[in-house]
Each structure stands twice: as structure tokens, then as C-alpha cells.
Specification:
Elements lengths: L13 H4 L8 E9 L2 E10 L4 E7 L11 H15 L7 H4 L7 E4 L6 H10 L2 E6 L4 H10 L1 H6 L3 E6 L5 H7 L5 E5 L8 H12 L12 E6 L6 H11 E8 L11 E7 L6 H4 L5
Parallel strand pairs: 4-5, 4-7, 5-6, 7-8
Antiparallel strand pairs: 1-2, 2-3, 8-10, 9-10
Helix pairs in contact: 2-4, 8-9
Length: about 280
């Protein structure tokens, strides 16, 4: 998860916001204590490829080094898409593209979603986050190199600061799809994230066989202020709900997966906005 700083972490309750230990297909199997730094190694079984992904978390280093609930929702949908590519919430977004897909993930954090996308789709995935997060992303990418190779996937790790046009220029815009999970949380990051989305999606509407480049984002709503992000986003993008999870125990809402595409000049702004934000 890309943050410009971790000073605001006291605003977030880690008990309810971070991935619980009893998630299906997720098992914490090893904890390593090195000085003051604790490493949590988790394995995530992906049924469609009969493989296990290894992800290292470093909780003491901040929110960007931990797994969040929306990441597992996207991994589950990617896993299901591999088994049922024509009958899945991601089908309308993924089908019809030439393979291998080129995918960009924003605010990758531990890299679980990007690694799973590369493995299940046989895709070339660029995972990104702030510079201080890159070493752990590299660790997790290298830890899953064999699974990626055996499934035709590839991972590239790059730094990317939201709102910085130069960073987007260095990364490039030659992507078929953009992914993210749990990246809407601190309100001071709304505008930088929206600007990066604009830079990446700008001019993509209708350029590939009538298909606009899509940004697919999984989000678990935590605060009323989250709606401010979606209100701003709907002024710039067509927003569609692809999937809604049932609430987990102790939560009133489930993870929602959204699809953002560039608005056409003559599009009806009222027809594209979802009421599920």
C-alpha cells in the first residue's frame, strides 16, 4: 500500500483493518524475530494453479508491509477467473485482450495481488509502491519466482509515487490493466491517487478495439470520508461495481471491487456512477 508517510497509523485500528489470521487458504506458518523486527511469513494456496504463494509481512515497519482484506478478495477473483474465465466478475475486463497481459499494480504493499495476477493470468506485472517498500516487494517477488516461471508469469518491481507525472513517465503507460487494493484510506492521498489514475488512463477510452483501459480496485469502506474519493472519481471516470463480498464477521460491509475507465466526452455522467461507494 502506497503511503507518503506512516505517521497517521494511529488513526487506523489494526485489529479490524488488517487481514485476520483465519482467512481461507491463508496460513501463517512461520514467524521470525530479528532484533526489534518481526517477520511474518504467510502461505496463500491458489487452487487454480495448485500452487502456494509465499508472502513476507513486516508489521513493525508500517501499514505498507502488511496484508489488507481487499487484497485477498482480488486474489480469490483471479483464482476463480482462471477456473471459469467466462463466468466471473473480472471476465468483462480481462477477456478480449491479447496475451500475455501487461498489468500495473498501484500501492502493491506486500505484492500479493500482483504476484497472484502474474501467476494466474500468465501475465507480465509491474508492482509498485514507495521507495522504502521496494526491498520487501523484491523479496516477495523473488520468493515466488519458481511459481511465476512455471505458470508463464513475470514480475517487475518499480517505485511509483502517486501524483508524480515524472514517475508515471518512467513506468510508462503501456498496460492493459491497472490493479489496486485497499488504497483509499488517508484523505490526503485521494488527489495524488486520482491524478496518477488520470495520467495512466488518459486518452485510453476506445483505443483498443473499442475498449477503454480499466483500473480495477478492491476497497473495504471504513469511514464515511471514503465517499469523498468516489465523488471526485465519478467526475473524471465511469465507475462500475464488479463484485461485492459478504461482510466478514464483525464488519457491517464487505469488500467491493470497482472498475474505473476514462469518461467519453459525450458520456452521461449520471449513468455511470455506482451507488455502492
Amino acid at each position: 500500500m502506497a503511503t507518503h508517510d506512516d505517521d497517521d497509523e494511529d488513526d487506523i485500528n489494526p485489529v479490524t483493518m488488517i487481514l485476520p489470521d483465519d482467512q481461507d487458504d491463508t496460513k501463517r506458518f512461520h514467524t521470525i524475530q530479528e532484533g526489534a523486527s518481526e517477520q511474518h511469513l504467510q502461505q496463500h494456496y491458489v487452487r487454480s494453479i495448485d500452487s502456494t504463494l509465499l508472502i513476507r509481512q513486516l508489521p513493525s515497519q508500517g501499514l505498507s508491509f502488511q496484508l489488507w482484506p481487499a487484497a485477498t478478495t482480488l486474489v480469490t477473483l483471479l483464482d476463480q477467473h482462471r477456473c471459469q474465465p467466462t463466468n466471473n466478475p473480472l471476465s468483462s475486463t480481462l477477456l478480449g485482450h491479447c496475451r500475455p497481459l501487461n498489468i500495473l499494480e498501484l500501492g502493491s504493499g506486500t505484492g500479493l495481488v500482483g504476484i497472484a495476477a502474474a501467476a494466474t493470468l500468465g501475465a507480465n506485472v509491474t508492482v509498485t509502491d514507495l521507495p522504502h517498500v521496494i526491498p520487501n516487494l523484491l523479496f516477495n517477488a523473488e520468493a515466488n519466482a519458481d511459481v511465476l516461471t512455471s505458470n508463464g508469469g513475470a514480475i517487475r518491481v518499480e517505485p511509483l509515487r502517486w501524483g508524480e507525472a515524472d514517475d508515471v513517465k518512467l513506468i510508462g503507460r503501456d498496460f492493459d490493466l491497472i490493479l489496486a487494493s485497499d488504497v483509499v484510506y488517508h484523505d490526503h492521498l485521494y488527489d495524488p491517487l486520482l491524478e496518477t489514475m488520470r495520467l495512466l488512463l488518459l486518452g485510453s477510452a476506445g483505443t483498443e478495439n473499442g475498449r477503454a483501459k480499466a483500473f480495477v480496485m478492491a476497497h473495504l469502506r471504513r469511514w464515511k470520508k471514503d465517499s469523498a474519493f468516489f465523488k471526485k472519481a465519478k467526475k473524471r471516470f465511469q465507475v462500475e461495481v464488479l463484485h461485492v463480498d459478504s461482510p466478514s464477521e464483525g464488519c457491517r460491509v464487505g469488500v467491493v471491487v470497482y472498475r474505473f475507465v476514462e469518461k467519453l466526452m459525450n458520456s452521461n455522467s449520471g449513468s455511470s456512477a455506482s451507488n455502492s461507494s
